[in-house]
TrEMBL record:
SUPFAM superfamilies: Lysozyme-like. Residues 84-182 form the Transglycosylase SLT domain. Gene3D superfamilies: 1.10.530.10. This is Soluble lytic murein transglycosylase-like protein. Belongs to the virb1 family. Belongs to the transglycosylase Slt family. It comes from Brucella pecoris. The lineage of its organism: Bacteria, Pseudomonadati, Pseudomonadota, Alphaproteobacteria, Hyphomicrobiales. Residues 27-77 are annotated as: Disordered.
């Protein structure tokens, strides 16, 4: 056979490695592109995180909430100050203590209702008010003057039973006249009341 006759046979397979090399190169490029995709995802996430950061800025949020709360307290305190002072004087409760208790109980908001059925500015229960001589309905206890009258009467009794001390008074008012041991909730309540009294 002549060498000329062998050339077609030799040239045909020589193109296969070329095609195979091109295919392998294309696959390698695809793998490289896929490998690069995860590296771009965290960048997008970090952009979202940076955008979300201002919304979760605790210091700014807390300042605005605290300022709003203080404003509401100041307005409410001045609105009901006359009634609070009148019944505090009637029942022998220090004015600062009376204001501090109303502030802690309801933040001077007359329409607040507690989870256990406590009503109004001083968060007094209907059953407690009835025990103090109240004959009206639960709805009637939302009326500021009525609520403060019976709430202050109960606070005065708590003060007497608590020996006149602030925390003793708060324990009896918060946990009931029969309470004898300070609990974490009443202790925290007392600290809040003392802080408010100092600020007056």
């Amino acid at each position: 056979m002549s060498s000329f006759g062998l050339n077609p046979a030799l040239s045909a397979p020589s193109s296969e490695p070329t095609n195979l090399a091109a295919l392998l190169k294309a696959r390698q490029q695809n793998k490289t592109a896929e490998a690069e995709k995860p590296t771009t995802a965290p960048k997008k996430a970090s952009v979202v995180s940076r955008r979300a950061a201002p919304a979760t800025n605790g210091s700014t949020g807390k300042r605005s909430q605290s300022k709003d709360s203080t404003t509401r307290s100041a307005k409410g305190g001045s609105t009901y100050s006359g009634i609070i002072n009148r019944y505090a004087s009637t029942y022998g409760v220090p004015s600062a203590l009376a204001h501090a208790v109303v502030r802690h109980e309801s933040n001077f908001q007359p329409n607040v209702r507690g989870k256990a059925g406590e009503i109004g500015l001083m968060q007094i229960k209907l059953s407690t008010a009835r025990g103090l001589g109240y004959t009206g309905s639960a709805k009637g206890l939302y009326e500021p003057s009525t609520n403060i009258q019976f709430g202050m009467k109960y606070l005065a009794m708590a003060q007497k039973l608590g020996g006149g001390s602030t925390c003793g008074t708060i324990l009896k008012y918060n946990a009931g006249h029969g309470a004898t041991r300070m609990n974490p909730t009443s202790a925290k309540y007392c600290s809040s009341v003392k802080a408010y009294m100092r600020a007056l």
